Known about the structure:
CATH architecture of the domain at 2-136: 2-Layer Sandwich
CATH topology of the domain at 2-136: Nucleotidyltransferase, domain 5
Low-confidence stretches: none
Structural class: alpha/beta
Shape: globular
Number of strands: 5
Number of helices: 15
Oligomer: single chain
Distance between the termini: 90 Å
Mean pLDDT: 85
Amino acid sequence: MTSCREAQHQEKLLSHGKVAASFDGGWQKRGSGWNYNSNTGHATMIGKETGKIMLWDQRSRSCKTCEYHLANQTQIPDHLCSKNWYGSSKAMESDMAVSMAHTLKNEGCEIKVIHADNDAATTSKLKVDFEDLEKRDDQNHLKKGLSKSLHQMSVKYKELKQDDTREYILRCFMYAITGGTTEDDIKVSLDRIVPHIFGNHDSCREVTWCKYKENPTNFKYRSLPGGNPLTNESLKEELLVLVSKYTSRSDAIAELGSTQANESFNQMASSKAPKSRHYGGSCSLKNRLSAAVLQKNEGYSYLPKVNEASNLSPGDFTTSLTSKMDAKRKKRKQASNKKEIKKRRISLKKKKNLNERKSTIKEGPTYETQFELNMDNTENVPQIPQQIMISGSESKVSMS
């Protein structure tokens, strides 16, 4: 908790009284997509300015000691019970958000702005006790939701079956949302998207991402089929409906935040408490999550500090190794934010997806849900022969 309190103090100084935090939760069991029943869950509040965890919490629906004695019908002895939750797994996240918000307020670090996804009832629960709290959407989840909507439309409209077309429309949406500074700016920018994609550039004069005004005669869309605008009126209507959905939420998508730091912590937590194992029946899970919090806030150098706090030798080898690991982590983080690295990452991803699609077309259908049941004859799967590679030694002509 000392590390978290230091993070709270730093965040208050840097935020000048308006503390903003990103919030997200995680579970120690993978959800199937339709059923979420993990016995344990955790959540974090991470300061926007410092990127450090200001507070964390966890919930558990099990205690191995209690379960053992109840099964054997014996008296439960006094012990440190790990069970602190009796509701559903889905309700853990919003409950932890409210609990942490109250704790931070009592400790003098009240949150004024929270960045979170829209997957849980977190906002509605928080608004009951914190009416002045501002909610901001998470940029990555917003982008993922837009991408999913466009992919669902591609089933109906052939214009959206090409990845480049969907990605271009997605970029237009993100330009409009991230380019505005106020709610009105975002509304105006969103209203420009559909006319622009369908060849009407009357409202594009004030934006930098549309190059039509530079050369109206020879203008072509770089990512649309044939460089021409879309023409399907039914698709246009559906895109307008999609725009209106986000226009109505202009207050929440203004000044988008990010929960990437929380997702990064969830990854650290899963390395210390793998989802294939259950640690929530004892204090083991809490200790493992505490180690992940220290690693997030202090880096790998938390290990020598923990040894010293426990009156143990920090260890010369441990100190040297953690310093190298922190330096490597810092270097990797700096490199990942460079523009050329991001462009290379996108280029490699496109190349990989292209090669995957080529191979899929050549091989035909080979893997999908209930594949054998849906195929009349799995032995007659259509395939395109692979390209013949000739080395020059396949044919020899003898001279007589």
